Amino acid sequence: MGYYVNIRCSKCRYSFTDGYARKGVSSNLGFPIIVCPNCKTPNLTGKKIWSQMTTSERRQYFLSRVKQTLINALPLFIIVFIVIGKFIGSNISNEGYGILILSGLIAILISSFISFINSWYMINKIEKKYREGDTESVTI
Ligand SMILES: [Zn+2]
Hints:
Bound molecules: zinc ion
Number of domains: 1
Order of helices and strands: EEEEHH
Distance between the termini: 15 Å
Largest sheet: 2 strands, antiparallel
Number of strands: 4
Structural class: mainly alpha
Strand content: 5-15%
Helix content: 40-55%
Protein backbone atom coordinates (compact mmCIF):
# COMPACT_ATOMS: atom_id res chain seq x y z
CA MET A 1 0.00 0.00 0.00
CA GLY A 2 1.09 3.55 -0.56
CA TYR A 3 0.79 6.42 -2.93
CA TYR A 4 2.69 7.62 -5.96
CA VAL A 5 4.95 10.65 -6.00
CA ASN A 6 7.04 12.38 -8.60
CA ILE A 7 9.68 14.55 -6.92
CA ARG A 8 10.93 17.18 -9.34
CA CYS A 9 13.72 19.78 -9.35
CA SER A 10 12.30 23.22 -8.52
CA LYS A 11 14.25 24.80 -11.38
CA CYS A 12 14.45 22.44 -14.36
CA ARG A 13 11.67 19.94 -13.45
CA TYR A 14 14.12 17.03 -13.58
CA SER A 15 12.50 14.03 -11.87
CA PHE A 16 14.49 12.70 -8.91
CA THR A 17 12.21 9.69 -8.73
CA ASP A 18 12.41 8.85 -12.46
CA GLY A 19 8.73 9.60 -12.96
CA TYR A 20 6.10 8.46 -10.53
CA ALA A 21 7.39 6.16 -7.82
CA ARG A 22 5.47 4.16 -5.26
CA LYS A 23 5.83 5.47 -1.75
CA GLY A 24 4.55 4.45 1.68
CA VAL A 25 3.58 6.77 4.52
CA SER A 26 5.73 9.87 4.07
CA SER A 27 8.44 10.40 6.65
CA ASN A 28 10.66 13.32 7.66
CA LEU A 29 13.82 11.24 7.43
CA GLY A 30 16.16 11.99 4.52
CA PHE A 31 18.68 14.43 3.09
CA PRO A 32 17.79 18.08 3.92
CA ILE A 33 19.07 19.16 0.50
CA ILE A 34 19.29 17.23 -2.75
CA VAL A 35 21.33 18.64 -5.60
CA CYS A 36 19.79 18.23 -9.03
CA PRO A 37 22.11 16.07 -11.19
CA ASN A 38 20.80 17.90 -14.28
CA CYS A 39 21.18 21.62 -13.39
CA LYS A 40 23.06 21.43 -10.05
CA THR A 41 20.36 23.42 -8.23
CA PRO A 42 20.10 22.55 -4.53
CA ASN A 43 16.52 21.57 -3.62
CA LEU A 44 15.25 21.76 -0.04
CA THR A 45 13.41 18.60 0.94
CA GLY A 46 12.07 19.51 4.40
CA LYS A 47 13.66 16.28 5.64
CA LYS A 48 16.45 15.70 8.13
CA ILE A 49 19.03 13.06 8.94
CA TRP A 50 18.47 11.30 12.28
CA SER A 51 21.42 12.86 14.14
CA GLN A 52 20.15 16.37 13.34
CA MET A 53 16.54 15.74 14.37
CA THR A 54 15.06 17.27 17.51
CA THR A 55 13.16 15.11 19.97
CA SER A 56 9.79 16.12 18.49
CA GLU A 57 11.03 15.44 14.93
CA ARG A 58 12.17 11.99 16.06
CA ARG A 59 8.74 11.44 17.60
CA GLN A 60 7.13 12.53 14.32
CA TYR A 61 9.32 10.06 12.43
CA PHE A 62 8.41 7.32 14.91
CA LEU A 63 4.68 7.99 14.47
CA SER A 64 4.97 7.85 10.67
CA ARG A 65 6.63 4.43 11.05
CA VAL A 66 3.88 3.25 13.40
CA LYS A 67 1.31 4.19 10.73
CA GLN A 68 3.34 2.34 8.10
CA THR A 69 3.64 -0.68 10.40
CA LEU A 70 -0.13 -0.88 10.86
CA ILE A 71 -0.76 -0.55 7.11
CA ASN A 72 1.76 -3.33 6.43
CA ALA A 73 0.14 -5.48 9.12
CA LEU A 74 -3.24 -5.53 7.31
CA PRO A 75 -2.45 -7.93 4.44
CA LEU A 76 -0.27 -9.93 6.84
CA PHE A 77 -3.21 -10.22 9.20
CA ILE A 78 -5.38 -11.80 6.49
CA ILE A 79 -2.64 -14.30 5.60
CA VAL A 80 -2.01 -15.27 9.25
CA PHE A 81 -5.75 -15.59 9.86
CA ILE A 82 -6.15 -17.98 6.92
CA VAL A 83 -3.10 -20.04 7.94
CA ILE A 84 -4.19 -20.38 11.60
CA GLY A 85 -7.74 -21.15 10.45
CA LYS A 86 -6.43 -24.00 8.29
CA PHE A 87 -4.38 -25.43 11.19
CA ILE A 88 -7.21 -25.36 13.67
CA GLY A 89 -9.72 -26.65 11.18
CA SER A 90 -13.31 -25.99 10.26
CA ASN A 91 -14.49 -25.20 13.80
CA ILE A 92 -13.64 -21.54 13.25
CA SER A 93 -17.05 -20.25 14.35
CA ASN A 94 -16.39 -21.20 18.00
CA GLU A 95 -12.87 -19.86 18.27
CA GLY A 96 -13.19 -17.23 15.54
CA TYR A 97 -12.88 -14.28 17.87
CA GLY A 98 -9.73 -15.62 19.56
CA ILE A 99 -8.15 -16.49 16.22
CA LEU A 100 -8.95 -12.99 14.98
CA ILE A 101 -7.15 -11.37 17.94
CA LEU A 102 -4.25 -13.83 17.77
CA SER A 103 -3.84 -13.20 14.02
CA GLY A 104 -3.87 -9.44 14.62
CA LEU A 105 -1.20 -9.69 17.31
CA ILE A 106 1.04 -11.95 15.20
CA ALA A 107 0.64 -9.65 12.17
CA ILE A 108 1.52 -6.53 14.21
CA LEU A 109 4.48 -8.32 15.83
CA ILE A 110 5.95 -9.41 12.47
CA SER A 111 5.23 -6.01 10.90
CA SER A 112 6.84 -4.14 13.83
CA PHE A 113 9.94 -6.29 13.58
CA ILE A 114 10.27 -5.62 9.83
CA SER A 115 9.67 -1.86 10.38
CA PHE A 116 12.27 -1.72 13.12
CA ILE A 117 14.95 -3.41 10.98
CA ASN A 118 14.02 -1.27 7.98
CA SER A 119 14.11 2.03 9.93
CA TRP A 120 17.40 1.12 11.58
CA TYR A 121 18.84 0.33 8.15
CA MET A 122 17.54 3.56 6.54
CA ILE A 123 18.69 5.82 9.41
CA ASN A 124 22.21 4.41 9.23
CA LYS A 125 22.34 4.35 5.43
CA ILE A 126 21.28 8.02 5.16
CA GLU A 127 23.65 9.04 7.97
CA LYS A 128 26.55 7.30 6.21
CA LYS A 129 25.77 8.74 2.77
CA TYR A 130 25.35 12.21 4.30
CA ARG A 131 28.79 11.99 5.95
CA GLU A 132 30.27 10.84 2.65
CA GLY A 133 28.94 14.06 1.07
CA ASP A 134 26.31 12.44 -1.11
CA THR A 135 23.60 15.00 -1.89
CA GLU A 136 22.09 13.54 -5.05
CA SER A 137 20.44 10.36 -3.80
CA VAL A 138 16.72 10.18 -3.20
CA THR A 139 16.67 7.35 -0.71
CA ILE A 140 13.14 7.74 0.66
ZN1 LIG B 1 17.38 20.81 -11.94
